[in-house]
Amino acid sequence: MVFTVLRFQPIRFAEEEWNEFCKSDDIQLVEPTFTKREEFIQELKDGKFKDVDFIARTFQSASISGNFDKEIVTLLNEYTNVKGIAHCGAGYDQIDAKSCSEFNIEVSNVPDKVSASTADTNLFLILATMRNFQLGHNNLMNGKWENDVNCASTPLGHSIQNKIVGILGMGGIGCTVRDRLSGFGLKKVVYYNRSRLSPELEKDSEYCSTIEELIKESDVISINLPLNKETFHIINEELIDKMKTGVTIVNTARGPVVDEKAIKKGILSGKIYGYGSDVFENEPFIDKEFVSMEQVTSLPHMGAATSETIKSMEVHVLDNVKSYYENGRVLTPVWECRK
Description:
Layout: E1 3-7, H1 15-21, E2 27-30, H2 37-45, E3 54-58, H3 62-65, H4 70-79, E4 84-88, H5 97-102, E5 106-108, H6 115-131, H7 133-141, H8 144-147, E6 164-168, H9 172-180, E7 188-192, H10 199-202, E8 206-207, H11 211-217, E9 220-223, H12 237-241, E10 247-251, H13 260-269, E11 272-277, H14 288-291, E12 296-298, H15 307-327
Parallel strand pairs: 1-2, 1-3, 3-4, 4-5, 6-7, 6-9, 7-8, 9-10, 10-11, 11-12
């Protein structure tokens, strides 16, 4: 029986591995020709993908298909044979995994492949935001160093030593951030998670049973949560009011876990010292007034953007496809689809 995979682009580094997998006469690869969601929906209803058994998708593919929300998942169930979706990313908020589970469609992600590079980005943002490095660079480029040899008029920042860092979300990335920070002379690391880690994973970090407990204690807050209905705008005005005055907040998770208007208000009031972020609420259509604030350090969603990381992610997507083809189960199901 032929196993048909609908594969979304881009595939930048794992084409050779895909070509090897597709040498089998039992494997058929289909790639989309539609360019927008409406066309995808119509082609689903027309039966163009009726023989598709599995979908390999990328973060970028949402630009042509839209998110795999309940509408799309329902159509996949009705008009295709799809029983598995492999997503090329650790975060999978583009997919309604709960609806997939209800239709017995397995969803997989790449939970560990992005941890190192994203944690590196996270640490960069913590240091750059606390030390005003982005503002310093901007001042240098604007010629201020020529007139003020004292750091080009850039205000003094803060050292990370003896600070308390709170990690909000202690999954693979959160744990790697904690490990990256181990040599910086922190006072301690505290964390909040859906459930407490085992002693082996917790190491010397301290568990907080509530988010409020974590934010009241932390000098620096690292956001490493997935985006879902429960975490949307979890960092809001009410929570910010309970934080220490002068807190630094860093986000390498997803933009909408933060209410950017509340962050802006917190910066203007002095409650928030600085905000460093790789992700934004309406990216790529960002609030330019917000990111141009002197206290904001910004990157264009570069957390996992290394060639080594992207290749490992793409290969892991293929491994999930292979696993389903050979065993009827993906390797790394998301928690909504675990049995």
